[in-house]
């Protein structure tokens, strides 16, 4: 049964984006997520560029206005007080002029800014605003390698599952067992008031999320200390691939705008990162895997994190293998791309990042596959993404087996990605 008339999808998507726009920044969805989220905003800006270029630049500028002095760009900016979300600013205790969280999120900004720049009708405005953002994004990239790759391996680690943006992925399960739960403050989750508990992370996971936050807070959020002090250090291929892609895009943009030093620094990170990524390849799974930096071992968990590297310039044969892996998964799921391999017994079709389809992830995969000439599978993912919208509306994520909408509704980044998918089908 269709809930949205296909010819009205564009207008609906714009309506969702505008309704979540708080003026200067956009919330992911009302209720469940009442603040500004880092990677959500970068995807949102790409969506906004379809109908309001000026507003799109502002979305990213607002995010970077809250960059930390050391270069980190926080994963949440708590612009206005709301008690509808846990953990709020008092739990993070980061002592910033405008409250923020103390961890980061996937580095989508470099990619997003290049995209805004390339398609800008107002070339003068685009050059001016991109040029002002360049050193800020460069500082963030520099921060990543200085603080999250202390031994210079070429790959950065995440220290909290929320940094990957894939909160409760199966990828973290084993390492997460090592995170204690003793001594955490009593807390009340707010997410369960807005979403079905069966679609969300578990209580034990929340306790560990919180333990890490309290631990980092006790270290004064000093990024020079956090990496080595964290019992959770995961090298996620997807997270790294996004950073590598953004570094490549930032380098191109820097060349265009006459910032040679930024271009050189980012190109070096790209070549070191791509070389190091190869150590995460799994022949058995036909995709990349995470590495647990505390044990040095690859994590036996075939998630979307290991498919995402197609978004970066990985070798052609790897991209081909990944396309075949997605085709295999497509035979087991009605909608693609599931966030975890359905053949894995741990797969859960409705639980957040343990199986459901997310449109932002599909978008990055499609972009990468198209660049490699894997057009048939790229088109199939695009079609699947738009079918989910007509069947189930602009949900946060979807059950790959049934297409059922899950999590929050009228979701900003889903709407933004729909505008991109529509553009792809039109060209
Ligand atoms: C959830 C997602 C994360 C996203 C946030 C806001 O925490 O896991 O990736 O940024 O919601 O949409």
Automatic annotation (TrEMBL):
Pfam families in alphabetical order: MGH1-like_GH
InterPro entries: 6-hairpin_glycosidase_sf (IPR008928), 6hp_glycosidase-like_sf (IPR012341), Glycoside_hydrolase_63 (IPR004888), MGH1-like_GH (IPR054491)
One GO BP annotation of this record: oligosaccharide metabolic process
Domain Mannosylglycerate hydrolase MGH1-like glycoside hydrolase, chain residue ranges per copy: 33-414
Entry keywords, A to Z: Glycosidase, Hydrolase
Tree of life domain: Bacteria
Family matches, as Gene3D superfamilies: 1.50.10.10
Hydrolase as UniProt keyword: yes
The UniProt record lists the keyword DNA repair: no
Gene Ontology MF annotations: Glc3Man9GlcNAc2 oligosaccharide glucosidase activity
Similarity field: Belongs to the glycosyl hydrolase 63 family.
Protein name: Trehalase family glycosidase
Organism of provenance: Chelativorans petroleitrophicus
Lineage: Bacteria, Pseudomonadati, Pseudomonadota, Alphaproteobacteria, Hyphomicrobiales
